[in-house]
Amino acid sequence: MENDIYKRFLELAGFTDPPLNEEMDDMLPKWKKAAKKLGLTKEDHKYAVKHWIPRNFEVNLEGWRKTIGMWIAEISDIMMAKEYKEKGKKLVYGVIPAHSAYYRALKLTDPEVNVYFPDASLASFLNPFFHKIAPLLEDAEMHGIRYGCRHCALNKTRYALIRKGLIPTPDASWIWGFACDQAPKSDEFIKEYFYKDYPIIFSRIPHDQPAFKVEYKDDKRVKYLGSIMREGYRDVCERIGIEVEKRAIKEAFEERFEFILKFGEVMRLQAADPTPYNGNITVFLVTPSSTAFNTGYKYANIALDAVLKDMKERVDKGEGVVPKSSPKAMAWFIPYNNPFISNMFDENGVSLAYGEGLLPSKAEFEFPRFTDPFDASAEAFLKSSLIVNWGNKANLAIEKMQTYNIDCMIWGFLDFDRWLGSDHKLCARYVEEKTGKPSFYIEGDIWEDRDYSEEALRTRIETICEVVKARHAISA
Amino acid sequence: MASFRDNLKEFADLSRRYPSELRRLKNRGKKVVCWYGSYIPKEIICASGALQYPLFDGGDPEPPSAALQYLLFCINVQARYQVGQHVMGLNPITPIADRIIIDAKGCDDVRVGDAFEYLGLPVMKLGVPQDWEKEIAFKYYKKQLGRLKEELEELTEEEITNRKLVEAVRKYNEIRQLLDEIRRFRMEKPPVIGGEDFVKLNHYALRCDPDVAIGHLKKISENLDEEKSKFSENAPRILLVGRGFAFGDYTLPRMIEKLGGVVAIEFLDEAMIHLERVKTNGNLMENIAERYYRAKVPSCLLNPSFSKRWEYVSKLIEEYHIDGLIYYLLSFDVVYDYEYPIFAKKAEEKGIPFTMIDSAYDFSREATETLRTRVESFIRMLRAE
Contact B218/B192 with Cβ under 8 angstroms? Predict the structure, then answer.
């Protein structure tokens, strides 16, 4: 009886569907252990199973179930990190945004190395599936990282996980401060405030490029970023005492590339009328390619196959999450951790189908100019809008709106992020000026909803959807 | 002989007239260069023949609110102030500036540059890699200074020769030397000069022609021997730490000193003239880079910095016989918000009383009275100890 609710939860996560059903017996005790560590009670599971998950995710679709399953596999593994460390495994932690392939290469070189993005993973799991990230955030807020200053929830999560001993201190924390100041300074905070031997490796780049400069075309910029990645990687390898084989780097990149290529089909199918799946799926599913999963791509590929199958069926039947001919919107970053937001758009007849970062730009189809793996990934990094200047970012959004025939652009949900979100007001204005299409900034927080509840956002989203539908009707 | 107060007032008047002087000279064809951030070498601007104008105003809650149409509310209040001040038409210089140089060492500072770019102002972002201990980062910064030099040469159509650089370096070294001499008077018990006046001296020296600043600082320095301290013998000696006091934001040091304490020394990243000199022998651009990037205590925004900065604070605590430490935290200043609990913890370990004062530049009656109560309680506690 006691196991029933956990089993029911794993059922919603695809562990009764083949091939995951073969792992049910293994996963159940693992999950119970992980849930206990995370403070997820039976009541929490009941709430998730009976209310929260069915309300926010179409778990009648196998694709959604298996995507949740993918996350459960990784979270269970993260929560065993302490045992792994005690058994002599080396742990390397990362934060987003970073290039996951380098972390995977460490793992592929030596299976005794475990790689985790603990905060991004836990934050992407606890709120969407249990609506329960707050206890970790509150713990951090009670122990040095003030609530009032609007620190990033990811950094709070990482600190709380370590401070509470839920995960051990790593052998190397490779912090890519390519975007914000907060992540690298958070690690420094952990070191100075909590654990003085916290092993940090910083990789940073200054944001000194003028507006509208296309950064990936600047060889010096690419080379500098490549050098910073190379140095960081070298330092990590030295710190954990391994020499990474070139074979492993190649394999990690190929593995990632294959996954992304296949994932591209999801984005292509999202273009169908009506949009077949809620936009949240795009972020949940693609995550292992941006944050290294210690479980690799095994579960991600299983989920991806199931999602593609569902999508194709829906497209064939002309079914979707919105009525036919509904306008499509693109968010700079779909607020997937508060899944009700994207649903709210769908419910109001505007499909928040895409995240900007997941739609390839024209530049991404260009042949890379650099062959060295670090320079090549630096070039690829600068083709995306993550760390580039605001004008470059806005122009990428414009290009994609035109290429993919998108009716509306949604910015925001990153009100805490001094880099990723802090130019969104400028971008929103600029994009609307240049495209003539609606471009909205919405105040919010992608990771948590303590300050921006569902009801607080509802009116704003309903109003936006009315405007978008009216503009769409005029242009039709 | 004029008193310190008379000299300070005269210096203040001159500094206040500096913006109108810049506008006058601009009309005669001189170039005006604004700068925002302590990693921008004033020496290079000075050697270019352009007129320099530091941006770091603050102390009023309206401009930060006016910036909200372009920036997020969680950008620190000081950064938002710069944008809001321009938007509201309150900055006399940004609309006529030929260049606005922003040191790109932190996200918030860069966003000031971004908003200025959006508003059509001529911005140059100077790259300051945050991982300052790496050789590759230092090389990058040096290249950035080379870029700055070239851009200013192009702007002023004047070559920045070695001779001009030497002259500029000497001027600013002399300013540092004079401020250093004045600073020594603060070690006395009670000190002849307190924190409010010293911060103002820095501000006046920054918003002034360097030759004029040298003249005034000399007068002040030479006459300080004769000055009597306005502070009581047993006034608690306070160290102020933080990003910086804006031009116009003097409430906290003034309040401390009115309530019976004295700001014996401060450790502020911005809007202060840091006293490390630029070496004058050898390659001057290299020396300037060394001075601004590696020789000084790293800004809070760099990685790593907390530990080195606390080492420096500890040294100040000993040298200036500090009784208590006040951390001046600007609202939403996220990286400094990480530093203050670390310093609070380390101060406790050292047995130094510590408090943090958070400012959103709100000096309404209610806010000021709350501030007064906090400062008064802290000073009373220091006295009791």
Answer: no
Whether A421 contacts chain B with CB within 8 A? yes
Gap between the Cα atoms of A165 and A181, Å rounded:
25
The Cα–Cα gap between A312 and B101 comes to 53
Which tokens go with A291? 């944050």
Helix or strand or coil: residue A200? strand
Smallest Cβ distance to B341: which of A144, A184, A188?
A144
Where does A76-148 show beta strands of DSSP type E?
Answer: 90-94, 113-116
The answer for B 170-189 residues in CB contact with A (under 8 A) is none
Whole-prediction pTM:
0.97
A447 and A417 in contact (C-beta within 8 Å)?
no
Q: Are the beta carbons of B106 and A181 separated by less than 8 Å?
A: yes
Q: How far apart are CA A344 and CA A342, in angstroms?
A: 5
**Please, what sign has the CA dihedral across residues A384, A389, A393, A396?**
negative
A208 and B307 within 8 Å at the Cβ level: the answer is no
From chain A residues 220-259, the ones with a CB under 8 A of any chain B CB are: 224, 227-228, 231
CA distance linking residue B50 with residue B157, whole number of Å: 10
The encoded tokens of residue A127 equal 């709120």
> From CA B297, how far away is CA A334, in angstroms rounded?
41
Asked if B71 has any chain A CB less than 8 Å from its own CB, the reply is yes
ipTM for the complex shown? 0.96
The residue type found at A232 is G
Whether chain B has a CB inside 8 Å of the CB on A192: the answer is yes
User: Which of B39, B110, B359 would you mutate first to test chain A, the one with the most A CBs within 10 A?
Assistant: B110
- Tens digits of per-residue pLDDT, B173-225? 999 999 999 999 999 999 999 999 999 999 999 999 999 999 999 999 998 98
- Give DSSP secondary structure letters for A311-357: HHHHHHHT--SS-TT--EEEESS--TTSHHHHHHHHHTT-EEEEEGG
Which residues between 263 and 282 in chain B have a beta carbon less than 8 angstroms from any beta carbon of chain A? none
Give pLDDT tens digits for A394-427: 999 999 999 999 999 999 999 999 988 999 999 9
B360 and chain A in contact, CB less than 8 A = no
Residue B286, min C-alpha distance to chain A (Å): 20
Rounded Cα distance, A71 and A52, in Å:
16
Say whether A206 and B134 touch across the interface (CB within 8 A).
no
Read off the tokens for B279.
């070496």
Radius of gyration of chain A from its Cα atoms, rounded to whole angstroms:
21
What residues of chain B lie within 8 A of the CB of A429, using their CB? 118
Residue whose structure tokens are 């000190």 = B191
Question: How near does any CA of chain B get to the CA of A145, in Å?
Answer: 7
For residues A25-56, one letter each, b for 16 or more C-beta atoms within 10 angstroms of the residue's C-beta and e for the rest, the string is: eebbebbbebbebbebeeebbebbbeebbeeb
* pLDDT computed for residue B170 by the predictor: 97
Take residue A230 and report the two structure tokens written for it. Answer: 């190379």
Give the number of other CB atoms < 10 A from CB of residue A264.
13
DSSP string, B23-42: HHHHHTT--EEEEESTTS-H
> Is residue A135 a contact partner of residue A112, using CB atoms and an 8 Å limit?
no
pLDDT digits (tens, 9 = 90+) for A144-180: 999 999 999 999 999 999 999 999 999 999 999 898 8
Q: Measuring CA to CA, which residue among A290, A274, A273 is closest to residue A282?
A: A290
Structure tokens at B172: 């600013």
